[in-house]
Amino acid sequence: MSQPALKLDPEGVNAVLRAAFPDAPREAMGLVAEAEPGRVLVRRPYGPGLLRPGGIISGPTLMSLADTAAYALVLAHVGDQKMAVTSSLVINFLRGAAVGDIWADARLLRLGRRMAVCDVRLWTESADRIAAQATVTYSLP
Question: Given this structure, which CATH class describes domain 10-139?
Fold first, then answer.
């Protein structure tokens, strides 16, 4: 199955994210490190405020990054559409996410005229040790 072409490169997506959320600290959003047709890779730098009791990355932090990665994926493929909104986010926590930068690999499952469905896998230690998996649906304007 062929993937739709990119409309924005990583720098373009990061610029749209900064413009859409000007008051958010840059490190809190995560940064698109790679973009290719059907996929983006996002990295959120580690900070001590991301931990929950027990010394692992908190669930809300992982959910936030899953949503951000899906939004970045949509923007990369549809362009500067700030009014694309999350309509569904289902997440499965598979193991505790160890201390470290958080990575999110987001892939398009479907990109239509009215919605985009994304698969997002999150980890800190290695891509082979996924901490969480999310399916995120975005409604498109």
Answer: alpha beta
